Every structure is written in C-alpha cells, then in structure tokens.
Amino acid sequence: MKQIFTFCRLSLLIPGLLIVSGLTQCKKDDSENNYAVYLNRADEDFIDFGTFEGFTTGTDWCIIEKVKLPAGTGSQGGWHFFRGKAWEDKEGDIAISFAEDRVYAWCRKNQEWVDIAYVGTFNEDQWYTICLQYDATEELLELYVDGEQVGEQALAPMDDSNNNNRMFWGGQEVDNPDLGDLYSETSIIIAHQAWLQRKLSGSEISGYDGYLAPESAMFFSSEIGSKSVKDISGNNRNGTNGNSPEFIVIGD
Q: From start to end of 92-160, where are the E strands?
C-alpha cells in the first residue's frame, strides 16, 4: 500500500483516537497506521541493519528515502545514516548528511572518500525526497532532491564484495554501538528508505511517495512499524533498535 505523508506528532491519547498537532486524527490500531522513526542525536538513537556486502559490486545502484528534520533541529547536521565504522572505513561505504542548509553524500573508493554536495534551504518538519544513485556505465554519481538532479560527481565503480561493515540509521558506528556510541549522528525523521541495484528513472524519482514495491533489484526496503523496522525486500535485513528511538504515526 502506498503511503501519503502528513506528519502527526502525538500529544494526547484517548481511547480509540490519537489526537495530534494540527488537529489531524490518526487511527490507533497498529494495522491501520503508517509510521516514521524519529532518531534523536541527543539520545544517540540508532537502528542497526547488519552487513550490506555486495550492494555496489558491478552494478548501477540507487538509494532513495523520505526524510525530514524535526522541529528544533536548527543548524545541527550530521550523518543520518552511515554504512561503515569510524576510522575503519571500507570500499563501498556510503553516507548521507542532511541539515537545514545542505545535503551531503560520501562514497568510499580506493581508500578515499568521494563527496557530492548540494547547498540549499530545508525547512524543519517538512518532508523531502533524497535520492543518491550511480550509473556504472558512465561512472557517475548523481544526487537528486525532490525529483530534481542537483549534483553529480565522477566515481569509479566500487567493489564492496568484501565489505562487512554494517548500515546504521542514526550515525556512524564507533566502538560500542550497543551502547549508542555513534559518530556525527543527526536528529532525523525517516519515513522510508530503499536500496536498489539499478537506477531509477526520472519519473520514478519524481513520483516516489515513500513506497517502492518489492522487485528483483531491491536490496533493502524499510517497513516501519510501531516499534522497529522490517526489511520487505526479502533479504531479511531487519533493524535492531538502539537507545529506544521513537516511532511516530503518520496519517493520510
């Protein structure tokens, strides 16, 4: 089922109804709710999806997501997801930073980071679509914001077949991820994220509404529930929570 995103911040609970900001009502039954996850940098919240070996090897690829900055974020940015471990980075590690004035992505190749950045203005409490994808034939990394291509960068193909670094929402693993020891994390609300081993067309990117149906090229796709995140790609990369991130209702 495709999701339409209207953010609901819970403020009061009465039987049968959730009363939320903006006088929007959301159903209480978990089976009828759509959820987003709120990762708070002050609490070092994170979700660990395990290892992602073989995502970039010899293929086009794409990461697309529906995200927003929570109210009160201010100028603080950081990595809202990171595949890798601080100071032990491996080829094929990927990260995206999102703040009120930029989108900034990194990819690891030949023991160096290749970056691509877009400077703009991003409002708190507003949904944005970010897409980072790679054309293996042209050896070109592309960045899209809300369906518009905003940057590109040359990048030789990454071979991550031996990269056993884990992927985290909430920041980069340091030494003790089970204790919430993360590096450069950011406060972020994520409603959906998908990783595919193909490029998306321009119309697919512009038409993305926070859902992609499972397909053979899908490497990972999130389904956010009331307590955690499941992988609906069939590859069983379900999320393990750290420091109790908040799961919040989004209504239609």
A: 94-99, 102-109, 112-119, 128-135, 140-145, 148-154
